[in-house]
Known about the structure:
The protein is an alpha+beta fold and about 250 residues long. The protein contains 5 helices and 16 strands.
Amino acid sequence: MRLLAWIDGRVVEASALHHDAPFVMQRVHTLSRSVYHIDEHLEILRYDSERLFGFASLCSVVDAREIIISLLDHSRVSTSLSCPVAIRLNCRGELSFAVETPTFGSGMYLRAKRFEGVVYESNRPSTLTQTSASVANDDFLDKCVRMYGGERAVLVDKSLNVISRPWSPLFVAHRTKVYTPEEFETVEYRRAKEAIERAGFVLVVRDIPAGSLEQIDEIFMVDIMSVTALSKIGNHRLLSTVSARVTKKMEL
Length: 252
């Protein structure tokens, strides 16, 4: 499979697309040549690019959808596979779309692998989009967490309250309720909230002290294509019953 990218009218290999300038980014879920929530993703991208760079892309929803579908066709991505496409706008005004590796499944899914979580202190995100800075920070966090014998960071602030991120909101489940530390105006958060309520759980927005993680039943995170459940946090083993039920209720 030849994964391609589009940058300001040129089509190149996705692997040849270099990001050497600060950018804002949204990942979009595609399946069967349908591009989900593209209007919302573009709106969020415009909001943060205007705030950070002082300008926004003029690319319309129609044009963005056509570019993405054309890239998927030329990359020969099977219509039966879910595939993420990353949209980036950098500080030089360059807009790009890059086809990423498809998943061998369709629709929303619960990741088969569950990860060991490690509590790690960090700053709260200041943007709704992922940025070049947040991507670099995530890479750094992954390395730090592996040094502590874990696989996924459960971020906390200086007050040792759990941090959630707009592009990968975090939820904890205890008995019949699901808790999250913050609400976001993002596709990922909205879809997760709707699925949690459809699954019959009460969603409560409140501070989650790191110390309480030793008593909760589950921790899971949601992105545009999957739900990731943790297997343990520290020495505390976690379940995945709620996250599985929520995933079944997740709509594209």
